[in-house]
Specification:
It is a single chain. The chain is mainly alpha-helical and 471 residues long. Among the domains are: 74 residues, no CATH class; 248 residues, Rossmann fold. 58% of the residues lie in helices and 5% in strands. It contains 23 helices and five strands.
């Protein structure tokens, strides 16, 4: 066997074992000796993406394309996902998706991603057209139908689309029932059919629980919050410059709206939902206790990992990852001068909004209203602790107050960040920057209070958890 074939076998073995760094090194040695192996360039790109070496992954994927890799449309799609989700370059991502469709016009995964990208940049009609085209190619695509329904909300009931969703649900598996059911719930809610909407959401949450087997462990989460409080019991001190303003709170508490408002300021760049802190947490063995015992060199290494992962930016960057509220202790350990913007809203509105969304299985608490109320209680307990440590570095933005009387709230927020007032912060809805959250359509509109008090449409269904959330 030739030497390069030995290298190929070794690289493949390491990749299958999940030894990412060693596999990357092996593929690099292989391709230095045998640079014409298109599939190996593809595998290297895939591994580099797992290792968060996104620019390197783009190069490797391109070299796979240059060498005629089979299934080129998939490679273009992979490049598009990196450019959109991690490097915040939606225009370049759009070009990659178009390249994928040039190779294979019927490639439904690229169409679905293209529709999603149109949504991110606020192009509703284009997204509808793409999803409708995907359904023409794949009439049985539950995801295409669900996405079409999600961008078709109207105050008037769409009987045809509703019937299509209900019919698809009857013949779908549990995972598809969840996709379709949440879409149906949203469609009915927008049309004011609240009883039917809630029943659709209940069924969708149950289907999601069945398909993912996701379960929320209340005791385990309470114990985790206990450990966070015990670990970070003293305020961090030091002078490390803050690399961003951190926006956090419960999901669906107004964090996207606050970031879009700030992004209208000439000295602020909206970073979106950066996954840098969660990725760092996942990489720290023995978190959170390990943070308290880490030496200065280790903390510096963690700090550098965060800094290296930030997108290119001018001015003040915002890092809007709602569940970073769990990790304010880590953030302040790394960057003692960090400013924390805490978004909050009426818990009843917050929990209803979560219940109507198809969320990641890691957010299993959202599948059940009582579990979500428990999660909210633990969140409130932890935020009280962080505020006791950092009373001057955490600024609360109440969603309901913001939408009813925005100027005083925004003025206070800008002052907290050391920024002067600019009228452009009130025109956030005119910006064409990509928004990759469920609030994508809300932040394309001027400030309004229509979502405040939404819970009243579901007052009867919320009765069992009123005591749990202090309502």
């Amino acid at each position: 066997m030739d030497d390069w074939q030995d290298l190929l076998s070794e690289a493949s073995r390491l990749r299958k074992l999940g030894r990412t760094d060693a596999a990357i090194d092996a593929y690099r040695r292989l391709l230095a000796a045998k640079p014409d192996l298109a599939d190996s360039w593809y595998n290297l790109g895939w591994l580099q993406r797992q290792a968060r070496a996104f620019e390197d992954a783009l190069i490797s994927y391109q070299r796979a394309l240059d060498r005629g890799v089979a299934g080129a449309e998939e490679v273009h799609l992979n490049r598009a996902v990196i450019l959109s989700d991690f490097l915040h370059r939606p225009d370049d991502a759009m070009e990659e998706l178009k390249a994928a469709l040039d190779r294979n016009p019927d490639y439904v995964p690229a169409l679905l991603n293209l529709g999603n990208l149109h949504e991110d940049v606020g192009q509703r009609e284009q997204a509808k057209d793409v999803y409708a085209h995907a359904l023409e190619i794949a009439p049985g695509s539950a995801l295409a139908l669900a996405r079409l329904a999600t961008v078709s909300h109207s105050a008037e009931r769409d009987a045809n689309l509703e019937a299509r969703l209900r019919g698809a649900i009857r013949s779908a598996d549990a995972a598809e029932q969840a996709d379709l059911g949440f879409a149906l719930a949203g469609l009915l809610d927008a049309a004011g059919a609240y009883e039917e909407a809630f029943e659709a959401a209940r069924a969708a949450n149950e289907a999601s629980r069945t398909s993912t087997r996701a379960r929320y462990d209340r005791s385990a989460h309470e114990a985790f919050v206990d450990r966070l409080i015990a670990t970070f019991k003293e305020p961090a001190i030091g002078g490390a410059d803050a690399p961003a303003a951190f926006i956090c709170g419960l999901f669906r508490s107004g964090s996207t709206l606050v970031e879009q408002i700030l992004g209208g300021h000439s000295r602020v760049q909206a970073g979106g939902e950066l996954d840098l802190i969660p990725a760092l947490v996942a990489a720290i063995d023995g978190y959170p206790e390990a943070v308290a015992t880490a030496d200065a060199a280790t903390i510096e290494r963690w700090r550098d990992l965060y800094l290296a992962g930030r997108p290119a930016h001018d001015g003040l960057l915002t890092d809007k990852r709602p569940d970073n509220f769990l990790h304010i202790g880590l953030i302040k350990t790394l960057f003692p001068a960090a400013k924390i913007i805490h978004t909050r809203r009426d818990p009843r509105d917050n929990l209803v909004s979560l219940y109507f969304l198809h969320l990641d299985p890691s957010m299993a608490y959202a599948l059940d209203l009582a579990d979500a109320a428990h999660w909210h209680g633990q969140y409130a307990r932890l935020m009280r602790h962080w505020k006791s440590l950092y009373p001057n570095d955490i600024f609360d933005v109440d969603y309901d107050t913001l939408v009813l009387d925005p100027k005083p709230v925004i003025a206070g927020l800008l002052d907290f960040l050391g920024l002067e007032w600019e009228d452009a912060v009130l025109d956030f809805h005119r910006h064409d920057r990509a928004v990759k959250t469920a609030s994508v359509w809300q932040v394309r509109q001027p400030l309004h209070a229509r979502s405040s008090g939404r819970w009243r449409n579901y007052d009867r269904q919320l009765e069992p958890i009123h005591d749990l959330i202090g309502a």
